[in-house]
Amino acid sequence: MLPIFSGAALAFLGLAPQTLLDQVFSLLPTSLSGEQGGQRCALNNWRLTGHPGWEWEKEVAVVTGGCSGIGKEVVLGLVANGVRVAILDVQPLPKDLEAIDAVHYWACDISSPAAVKAAADEIRSTLGNPSILINNAGMAFKDTILDASPDRIQKIVSVNLVALWWTTREFLPAMITANKGHIFTVASMASYVAMPMSAHYAATKSGALSFHEALRSEIKHMYKAPGVLTTAVHPMWVKTDMTAPHAEDIERHHGPMMMASDIANPIVKQVLDRRGGHLLIPGSGGLASGFRGFPSWLQEAILDRIGKNTAAFKGS
């Protein structure tokens, strides 16, 4: 009976309307998201409660890409709770953020280790050692593997992935010394499932997940600093300046996009809860984290569905 069932399921995945598929997937177990019960405890360095020792008016957060999109919403959420924020961004500081005393800005290309070091030195001398690092800055392009230019490939890898080393190397040592800190890696659902025309983006986001996992293990076992927390963030489609050029196509083929605040609010809550872990947003998207463990036929059927929808996008 299994081959008949599998064949019927495969036909259903291939022929059913997208709206019906979305309803079915939303009913599947979400325990794969890593946010249930004991798994949540494990990702919080085996603590059931938040870690002690945090005083928000005394904390300093560094937010990369904090001038727009998710990063800007995170900045607003943190300062609303008393945290001072240092923004690293190549975009100019918006007027509304400029008016907030707790917001500080450094023009910085995070793909340059020298630029990150210079900004970090100024942050430390001006504000003290940051206890929160939110690696949020990122970029995306829509290219096939054959069409992507060397410059675009190098830029997206440098900003989305390699820059994680430069910022973390600057701010992690003081966190280890204090045995207190929280490092966020804003990845994507593309960490788990790659789509056509986004091989470079998906590669950086799966790499970001690997970076996060190795970082968590090194902090715990090599540096013996269980008070330094790590959180990986995996959002689905989000309406930002970065996705704006393709928003119409995305919503036509993949459904409504989330707003930046839908991602930023859980990040800020995770900071305030003093817990490490994984944030898969929306929660129903947690199914994607177990994608590689699905039967091959199911993986291929899902990828075929995604591929057909993505292939309908207009070229940039």
TrEMBL record:
<comment type="similarity">
    <text>Belongs to the short-chain dehydrogenases/reductases (SDR) family.</text>
</comment>
<dbReference type="InterPro" id="IPR036291">
    <property type="entry name" value="NAD(P)-bd_dom_sf"/>
</dbReference>
<dbReference type="Pfam" id="PF00106">
    <property type="entry name" value="adh_short"/>
</dbReference>
<keyword id="KW-0472">Membrane</keyword>
<keyword id="KW-0443">Lipid metabolism</keyword>
<dbReference type="InterPro" id="IPR020904">
    <property type="entry name" value="Sc_DH/Rdtase_CS"/>
</dbReference>
<comment type="function">
    <text>Catalyzes the reduction of all-trans-retinal to all-trans-retinol in the presence of NADPH.</text>
</comment>
<keyword id="KW-0521">NADP</keyword>
<keyword id="KW-0732">Signal</keyword>
<protein>
    <recommendedName>
        <fullName>Short-chain dehydrogenase/reductase 3</fullName>
    </recommendedName>
</protein>
<keyword id="KW-0812">Transmembrane</keyword>
<dbReference type="GO" id="GO:0052650">
    <property type="term" value="F:all-trans-retinol dehydrogenase (NADP+) activity"/>
</dbReference>
<keyword id="KW-0560">Oxidoreductase</keyword>
<keyword id="KW-1133">Transmembrane helix</keyword>
<dbReference type="GO" id="GO:0016020">
    <property type="term" value="C:membrane"/>
</dbReference>
<dbReference type="InterPro" id="IPR002347">
    <property type="entry name" value="SDR_fam"/>
</dbReference>
<feature type="signal peptide">
    <location>
        <begin position="1"/>
        <end position="21"/>
    </location>
</feature>
